[in-house]
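Supplementary notes for students who missed Thursday's class. We covered one full example, reproduced here. Read the sequence, then the structure, then the short commentary at the end.
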Amino acid sequence: MKRIRLLLLDDHVLFREGLRRLLISEPDFETVAECGTPAEALEVLARADVDIVLLDFDLDNETGTRFLASALAAGFTGKVLMVTAGMDSLDISVARRLGVSGIFMKHDSPRALLSAIRTVAAGSEWASDKVAAPPLRAGAEMTSKTITGLTPREQQVLRSVFEGLTNKEISHQIGASLSAVKATLQALFEKTGVRTRGQLVRIAIERSLETVRKPS
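Structure (token representation):
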């Protein structure tokens, strides 16, 4: 019997331990690695074959969708099942655009999670009741505007925001005053129709999918 190779990425040790105990009781599952940070998970994906990543959304200072974008850029072609306590509509839309195979809510039962993993492994999609509609790959429209016509300075600042830099760090990195960085950020907010840096990062991920995805 070919076993389903799994990678667990969740920053809560107790949850990972409980999930590991659940999975080892199933003969058709093989846990390749348990990771607490995106960096650890990316290292595993670079050297091991993984069929499905069980991915939490809230990863300390990062998000599951940002990790997924990085994994796709690195050439990961397996499946991803989000296992999360909650995601807002924008996060769900970005995850769908990034090609997740399912979104599983942590308050659902352990047996339901086993079913979700097997469903995803078989090539179908899974969604817990609260996120079941619309279909995962329906491509729900983003409410933000498309990022177009950015100036070179705006592109620099956007890349720096994506890297998680503060305004002061951006100022030092690009050689601009702090007030200039703030003004550029405000321009980016206006062009994208968002209000926060976190939303700006998510929009950047969503709009960069064509370059992140590998040809099938």
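Commentary. The chain has ten helices and eight strands. Residues 178-192 form the longest helix (15 residues). If anything here is unclear, bring it to office hours.
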